[in-house]
Amino acid sequence: MANASSSPPSFDYVIVGGGTAGIVLASRLTEDPNIQVLVLEAGEDLTADPRVNVPAMWVQLSGTSADWCFKTSPQQALAGREIEFPQGRLLGGSSALNSMLCIVSSKSNIDLWAQLGNDGWDWASLSKSFEKVYSFQSPTLPLAERGDGTIQASIPEEDSKWPQIWRDTFEGLGLPADNDPFSGTITGAVSYPETVDPKSKTRSYAANAYLSPASSRPNLTVWTSAQVDKVLFSSPANEDGEPVATGIQYTSTKDGQTLTGQRATARREVIISAGAINSPRLLELSGIGDADRLRSLDIPVLVNNPFVGENLQNHALIPLSFETATGAEEGFETIDGLSRQDPAALSAAMEAYGRQAGPLSKSNSNVQAQLPFPNITTEEGKRNLQRVLDSTLQVTVSDDGSTPGATNKTTPAYEAALKSYIRSVLESPTESSAILMTVPGWASYTPDGKWAPIPAGNETYFSIPVLLSHPLSRGTVHITKSSASTPDTETSTTKPAELGLEVNPNYLSHPLDVEILARHAQFVESVLAATAAPLATYLKQSASAKRSTALPPGPRAFAGEEGLDRARAYVRETALGAFHWTGTCSMLPREDGGVVDPQLRVYGCRNLRVCDASIFPLVTRANTMSTVYAVAEKGAEIIKASQ
Question: Which ranges of the sequence are coiled-coil (predicted)?
Fold first, then answer.
């Protein structure tokens, strides 16, 4: 794979972004030897890098040249904090640096996509695409082999008893403890597969699973270190008055030299697969977006669509770490020794990985739980939920009236459908309103989103971060200048102003999000980690126990109404976002806020599609990677059918 050349060659399809979706598209489209495909990736090829391949090293790529190193604008609901977040800037995209969790969305979530006006995008249809993505085997858990796909997925071996302790705890609470992770309906504890090859114990991702087998095809060309600046269109427009995409302009780096103004042409289509942050950015730089915004930046308006870059969605999450009890270490091993770079722990982990075992062979975060609104099966829980809904749900998604800057262009039809869905989820005893993740060790963050170092000392920890399954808060991502620029990822995070990009997720701008997170934080701190057996017996139950920074001394600091107020304050003080960005080029009817139609075609122009997480009209229940793969598989079928 070579860097971009200076010549202006022509291809049938030009794919912008060699990430999770773009590589799937390239692999599938070039199955036809008569179709010529070009993929342009801004980052490098790191398929041989151990930071990519060794599962537990996934956090090591954040803040490097393999990361776009984005940062949000100041978040008004989070005391003005600016939060850093990684996005993959390498071949394979975020599938090369994420936590590898293979989580399919819920059936109800995907079915809503279709109900919003996207025929053929329901659970029954997209499930077929999921099956094309994964090959899954579980030698230890009672799950049948699933799928016949390209990505290898496996559930890691349980070399400690804490996963079983987790399951036993939920069983003791009367919740299911052995869910099928592929079912589309999960309540209670669940062990998720990871995209780890069970034979080699290395990451299985877009670049090595989809691209490597296709790389010898003469009809596939991949350029790395090639950042696309804008899409090019024919002039004049076609007979219908719509601009026609004809290629792209890009900047490449080769041997330390930057070459600007280069071009490649597309005989059939340009396909943007740059992700939920960069795809709307590229549309706006190309003249597709809100006309007033584009004119203010002296960008000629080709398509006036005020919804480009709107409807930005992400899961908010909060950290919760608890010190383990004295004597709990045996059988409840943690990864804190690795976090402290203890020589003995490092040596043992390396030795175990040589046997394809141990903490380096997995993400150490696949054991989780999907939970409904706390106590929803009781009359008291139902009354609590009704009070929450009565006090929060009338606040609009587009402007909550109390948080300055929390605006987002949302149509009444979309907002009504969204609120109806959220209500149905919260009222259901079998739908997830929050996800409890687990890490056998310290897992916390600094206020600006970086990994927080483990406290000094010899204490060990068990962490239960809480993720909001279905946020109502909506944000935006928009350009602030008329030309693309490359972040200086070798040194530090590039500020949005330097990138010419403003990312404003409006975290917790809707009060319902705060309420749901606070009540799940209350459950974790005051029930699960304090009284629920057997888990609570493995955690230190005293006011002197070390806990997450900003977490009040415990146990049961969040119990009762006063405790719930403390939980709300803790949520606002510590919340940040997951890396599950979606929605900025939503697949919706244009009048309801859409940027692309169900065929992934950009409204108002010809020969231009978007295929990545930006087209999700609603953020998935949990991690987005599996759904991105499935969307790309389905997108490839759609494109092939249109040839």
Answer: none
Q: Residue 599: which CATH number?
A: 3.50.50.60
Distance CA 639, CA 598 (A): 11
Token pair recorded at residue 448? 């600006």
Domain for residue 148, yes or no?
no
Element (H, E) at 16: strand 10-16
503 is in an annotated binding site: no
Q: Which of 545, 574, 603 is the last residue of a domain?
A: 574
Return phi, psi of residue 186, to 5°: -135, 130
Q: What tens digit of pLDDT does each residue of 104-143 get?
A: 999 999 999 999 999 999 999 999 999 899 998 765 555 5
Q: Could you tell me if 442 and 553 lie in one domain?
A: yes
Helices (H) and strands (E) in the chain, counts: 16, 24
The reply to whether 541 and 632 lie within a common domain is: no
Enter the tokens of residue 396: 């609009």
Q: Are residues 172 and 215 in the same domain?
A: no
**Token duo for residue 361:** 């062979």
Instruction: Indicate if 215 and 175 belong to the same structural domain.
Output: no
Q: At 565, list the tokens.
A: 């107020």
Tell me which of 524, 558, 574 is where a domain ends: 574
Closest CA to 450 of 55, 20, 67: 67
| H or E stretch at 466 | strand 466-468
165 and 299 fall within a common domain = no
Average the pLDDT over 50-64 and give the result. 94
CATH number at residue 358: 3.30.560.10
Q: Is the pTM of this model over 0.90?
A: yes
Whether pLDDT at 78 is above 90:
yes
Domain-located, residue 289: yes
Residues 300 and 269 in one domain: yes
Q: What does the mean pLDDT of the chain come to?
A: 92
What's the whole-number mean pLDDT along residues 53-63? 93
Same domain for 521 and 542, yes or no, is yes
Which uninterrupted H or E stretch holds 71? strand 70-71
Whether residue 416 is contained in a domain is answered as no
Q: Are residues 286 and 344 in the same domain?
A: no
Instruction: Tell me which residue of 550, 574, 109, 554 sits closest to 370, measured CA to CA.
Output: 109
Q: Tens of pLDDT along 196-212?
A: 999 999 999 999 999 99
- Residue type at position 631: V
Domain count, the chain: 2
pLDDT score recorded for residue 494: 43
Q: What gap in Å lies between CA 587 and CA 597, rounded to an integer?
A: 5
Half-sphere exposure of 8 (CA within 13 A, CB side): 13
pLDDT above 90: residue 598: yes
The overall longest dimension of the chain from CA atoms, in Å, is 77
pLDDT at 374 (0 to 100): 97
Contact (Cβ atoms closer than 8 angstroms) between residue 150 and residue 210: yes
pLDDT in tens, 283-315: 999 999 999 999 999 999 999 999 999 999 999
Considering the domain boundaries, does residue 390 fall inside one? no
pLDDT band at 407 (very low <50, low <70, confident <90, very high): low
Provide the CB-side half-sphere exposure for 527 (13 A, CA).
14
Locus of tokens 């994420």: 98
Q: Identify the pLDDT of residue 238.
A: 63
Q: Tell me, what's the pLDDT at 485?
A: 59
On whether the CB atoms of residues 221 and 7 are closer than 8 A, the answer is no
Range of the domain at 256: 2-49+205-313+581-642
Instruction: Identify the pLDDT of residue 492.
Output: 38
Q: Could you tell me how far CA 203 lies from the centroid of its own chain?
A: 17
197 residue type, one letter: D
For residues 503 and 71, is the Cβ–Cβ distance under 8 A? yes
